[in-house]
Design brief:
Helix content is 84%, strand content 0%. It contains two helices and no strands. The chain starts with a helix and ends in a 9-residue tail after the last helix. It has one domain. By secondary structure, it is mostly helical. The relative contact order is 0.04. It is rod-shaped. The longest helix is centred in the middle third of the chain and has 59 residues. This is Sulfurtransferase.
Length: 79
């Protein structure tokens, strides 16, 4: 009987250590996941900002012909 209690206690101790390890690993994984999501969000935001800046630059550098072609006005009415 004494030997059985000893073995049970060892199993309980092993289970508790295993449980703590798993919770530590799980918390580390959750933290890493949050960090990766945040990094991805920041990257996406930076990419959108770069695209917006590129469009602004492109708009600034348009020639008169391009601006005239994009105009919705019918220039024939003004001749």
């Amino acid at each position: 009987m004494e030997e059985m209690k000893k073995k049970q206690k060892q199993n309980d101790d092993a289970f508790q250590i295993n449980e703590r390890l798993n919770s530590d690993v799980l918390s580390k994984l959750k933290t890493a996941s949050k960090q990766l999501k945040e990094n991805e969000r920041v990257k996406s935001e930076e990419k959108r900002e770069q695209e917006r800046q590129r469009r602004i630059e492109k708009e600034k550098n348009k020639s008169f012909e391009e601006l005239l072609g994009e105009s919705s006005l019918d220039w024939k009415n003004f001749k």
